């Protein structure tokens, strides 16, 4: 009888990597949900209000929102750190922080986000899709949102580009892995308020936008900078909703016209104008980091 080799009994490495991602995601959602609930309970006692009022304040009050996000951030980093160390069995900094040019890549990411979202806002102004009413600066709100969006950028990039993309890249073609994680990133936003098919497509493209540099250098500094500046300037500066979430902002504006062009209540990420801007940026980033690798 012919002996069956051990290799023929083993699953393909790409299938194992996908299995790891599924296990991680289940663990991640369980722990984050637990911490989120604990955060709500803490805020109920801290604010001395009921749960319904607390949930409203989490969406509208920057101070309360920051306290709540601290719970989510702690949970996210906790799960990612221990999964990376105990299951992936790698040094935590290898997830994307071992970068001798970290400051350069961080600044490039920040500039890329600022330029891209500013271009989109300018186009909307020129074509009348946005009308600016007034400028209001609240130091407290801006400071709170700055911290919030730093925490969001770090935690989401650690999860998606760091753990998920890195893991899949070790088991399949880099660009296929990038596409899969981009679609996962888009799917994670399907639970947001006012989501549309166009906003899902745009968020998935944003996943490519955020991940293309990581494919070339496995550094999280560029995507963290990009993620932060895009969100921060989109919401607290220019006054758009950020993926369906409304924030206090320096520029108070209203949108006019069809939601396809304005983005509607989802924010600029729901606008078709965002699509070519991100696609051009993806191409430029790819060319830049391809040449850097030579």
The overall strand count is 2
* End-to-end separation: 52 Å
Unreliable residue runs: 1-9
Portion in strands: under 5%
Radius of gyration: 20 Å
Helix content: over 70%
Listing every helix as H and every strand as E from the N terminus to the C terminus, the arrangement reads HHHHHEHHHHEHH
How many helical stretches? 11
The rough form would be described as: globular
Name the average pLDDT: 94
What does the largest sheet look like? 2 strands, antiparallel
Strand order of the largest sheet: 1-2
Class per helix and strand makeup: mainly alpha
Quick summary:
The chain is mainly alpha-helical. The protein has helices spanning 6-9, 13-47, 51-60, 62-88, 102-126, 139-169, 174-188, 197-217, 221-237, 259-262, 274-292; strands at 130-135, 251-255. It has eleven helices and two strands.
Question: Care to describe what's here?
Answer:
With 294 residues, the protein is mainly alpha-helical. It has eleven helices and two strands. A two-stranded antiparallel sheet has the order 1-2. The longest helix is centred in the N-terminal third of the chain and has 35 residues, at 13-47. It starts with 5 loop residues before the first helix and ends with a helix.
